[in-house]
Amino acid sequence: MTVVRFLRAYVSARLTPVLGDDRGEIASWVVVTALVVVAAIAIVTIVVTKLTATANNIQTP
User: Fold this and answer.
1) What CA–CA distance (Å, rounded) separates 1 from 27?
2) Which end of the chain is less crowded, N or C, counting CB atoms within 10 A of the terminal residue's CB?
3) Distance from C-alpha of 43 to C-alpha of 36, rounded to nearest angstrom
4) Which pLDDT value is given to residue 55?
């Protein structure tokens, strides 16, 4: 019976860090999401600026 208890304790000790303690996980997702949003806004701003500049340079007869 001691082998079974040992194996149970060993497996429990190995899986606890993997399966438990998700504290702080939401903060990392918020940071990643904020960085993606900032990057998307920057890309849209660059594209709109270039399109506006190109549209203003079109020669009209």
Assistant:
1) 43
2) C
3) 11
4) 94
Q: Is the dihedral of CA 54, 55, 57, 60 positive or negative?
A: positive
Cβ burial 34-60 (10 Å sphere, 16+ → b, else e) = eeeeeeeeeeeeeeeeeeeeeeeeeee
Q: What is the pLDDT of residues 50-59, one digit of tens each?
A: 999 999 998 8
The residue written with tokens 């997702």 in the block is: 29
The torsion angles phi and psi of 44, rounded to 5 degrees, stand at -65, -40
Task: Encode pLDDT of 12-29 as tens digits.
Answer: 887 776 666 666 678 788
